[in-house]
């Protein structure tokens, strides 16, 4: 989970391994958005980070973000099938992911 662009972002990998949701009020279960599918359905989301208000979605097969309309954009594709440990433990430090 992370807070970016005034929203709380999270992944419910039990329900959808490659889906994220957002909410302006995380305490209200009814305020969460519908699912936004990110990347390959064979890989779970390992981290969601805030990069200066931009959501970064970290998955074994690459790094993704959303544009202003909510469309998923691929920032980085990792060769091969992706290692399940890629981006695990990802953090922001000194304005860098």
Taking strands numbered 1, 2, ... along the chain, how are they ordered across the largest sheet?
Answer: 1-2-3-4
- Unreliable residue runs: none
Number of helices: 0
Q: Tell me the series of helices and strands, N- to C-terminal.
A: EEEEEEEE
Total count of strands: 8
Helix content: under 10%
Q: Whole-number radius of gyration?
A: 13 Å
Distance between the termini: 15 Å
- The helix/strand class is mainly beta
Q: Major sheet: size, sense and barrel closure? A: 4 strands, antiparallel
Beta content comes to: 35-45%
Q: Give the overall silhouette.
A: globular
Let me know the average pLDDT. Answer: 83
Describe the structure.
It is a single chain. With 97 residues, the protein is an all-beta fold. Helices cover 0% and strands 38% of the residues. It is built from no helices and eight strands. It has strands spanning 2-4, 7-11, 19-23, 36-37, 47-51, 54-59, 62-66, 72-77. The strands form two sheets. It has a four-stranded antiparallel β-sheet with strand order 1-2-3-4, with no helix packed on it. A four-stranded antiparallel β-sheet has the order 5-6-7-8, with no helix packed on it. The radius of gyration is 13 Å and the shape is globular. It starts with a strand and ends in a 20-residue tail after the last strand. The mean pLDDT is 83.
Quickly describe the structure.
By secondary structure, this protein is an all-beta fold. It has strands at 2-4, 7-11, 19-23, 36-37, 47-51, 54-59, 62-66, 72-77. The strands form two sheets. Strands 1-2-3-4 form a four-stranded antiparallel β-sheet, with no helix packed on it. A four-stranded antiparallel β-sheet has the order 5-6-7-8, with no helix packed on it.
């Amino acid at each position: 989970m992370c807070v970016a662009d005034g929203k709380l972002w999270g992944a419910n990998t039990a329900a959808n391994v490659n889906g994220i949701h957002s909410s302006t009020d995380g305490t209200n279960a009814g305020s969460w958005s519908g699912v936004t599918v990110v990347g390959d359905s064979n890989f779970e989301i390992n981290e969601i980070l805030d990069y200066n208000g931009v959501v970064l979605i970290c998955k074994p097969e690459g790094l993704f973000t959303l544009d202003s309309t909510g469309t998923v954009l691929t920032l980085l594709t990792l060769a091969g099938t992706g290692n399940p440990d890629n981006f695990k433990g990802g953090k922001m430090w000194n304005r860098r992911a």
